[in-house]
Amino acid sequence: MQKQGILRYYYFGMAIERRVSDKIAYFSMEIALDPAIPSYGGGLGILAGDMLRSAADLEMPIIAVTLVHRKGYFRQRLDADGNQTEEPDPWIPEAVLQPVEGTFTVSIENRDVHVRAWRYNLHGMAGFVVPVYLLDSDLPENSEWDRTLTDTLYGGDSRYRICQEVLLGIGGVSLLRNVGVKNANSYHMNEGHAAFLTLALLGEQMKLRKYTVPVEADVEVVRRRCLFTTHTPVQAGHDRFPWELVKQVLGEPRTVLLQQVGFGAEGLLNMTNLALHFSRYVNGVAMRHGEVSQDMFPQFPIHAITNGVHAATWASPPFQDLFDREIPEWRRDNAYMRYAVGIPLEEIKKAHCLAKAALIKEVQRRTGMLLDESALTIGFARRAATYKRADLLFKDVERLKHIAESIGPIQILYGGKAHPHDAGGKALIQRVIQAAAGLKHEIKVLYLENYNMALAKLITSGVDLWLNTPQRPQEASGTSGMKAALNGVPSLSVLDGWWVEGCVEDVTGWAIGYDSRISGDDSAAESVSLYDKLERKIIPMFYRAPEAYAEVMRFSIALNASFFNTHRMLSQYKANAYYPKSLIKKAQEV
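RE: above sequence
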């Protein structure tokens, strides 16, 4: 029988044991902690924050590590032509975070970079705390350039990015040791940004053995303690660094160590491959994404755990009140939202009207424009990336006008930032805003700038229909439609990511196109499908059969919100990745 908290491995036939804790160390380049802390850029950070909030609710012993990002992601400004400009979004960690006693150093480019940490506590329903540590290099002991390394999320050039990733991965392991976590059950890398933590763990393992050259047994010890979640099927989303830059930043000893375990021969270091090589468990973030990732990395077994959202965070106040009355256990156990099938439709409609009124009030405050509370309001808000095709709705503007004039009025809300270096994403925003200008007499189309967590709460709960149009199979999961479903807002979406699992046609929403396995740009056919669904199903139902539309809203909650939540997601990580029974004989048991 395996001893509790013991890692056992074999080295040349000799059993070696190491005591480990039951803690999970979770590393992510961005974590959305609070609307007032702009240290996140989009879905990756939102997902991380929601997962950790569920960990606090479910009392799972997770410790999280990220960077402080003192200048935030960026504030977005859009002019009348749709041109995006960026400015820093600074915040003051000292005002909202707890300082962690002590500092440590991380070797970068053969010099010591001094690092301190801040702590943010996420409190669960019963008071359990999940600590999040935010690393900070803004110390007077550092050079001016080194002090900026924890300033900007996804900023700078390749040198800046790889230095940040050294701080996150290697510095994060040092931080854990500094706060008393001498070992952990598992080290979970949320994307490849944190993959250098495997080097830190390998270095510790070799120091324990007092050898200078790693053998497969050493790699296996690290592998049994590491997990990796990949979030993108887009090749550009996987960080790659030239080998000369890797050598410059890591220094000779770590570079040699990488070479000894098989990296560098192709002249590039792919951070995803590094994470894959050192992980005992790898997963995509939706069932379809797991299949796509398996095709991308056939030499590694890829599993799938579909993403979710933290229900108590994303339910609007009116729906929180409704759930508290009708489903009292929903916060503790999100699966109880299945019982939303019994909530009277009038109560669903009443809660949604309140959420819609709050959104309209905020839109008026921001833009001066008053939307029509009775008009079908479509929402499209997410990162402005070309594959998300925010302009697909405007492929046939004349047909869209005809639908609005002959079937029923519509109004459309957009939001989302393009990465400062993403020219295609910026051009996409321009096309949407230019289309809006051309439709101003027939359809109100507003693009709300500076999309963030606070605005997302209002849009996902206040619109009547959630639109999603990614180019298949490039949507890994998506979580904005899950937030909408939690608030009774059905989706009209391309069958990709989570929607492959969440779409029950005419029950939880509607599919754009038909075959989820078709890859590539099928914009012409998908735009026709989009218009057909609006013209023949959705708009007629909204205006002429409001009870039937409310039924779809109710099923969105009962079928989708009850499953696509981080309580369920984290329970799957616990059973399949963190403490799987299959590893009792090979690794630690908790």
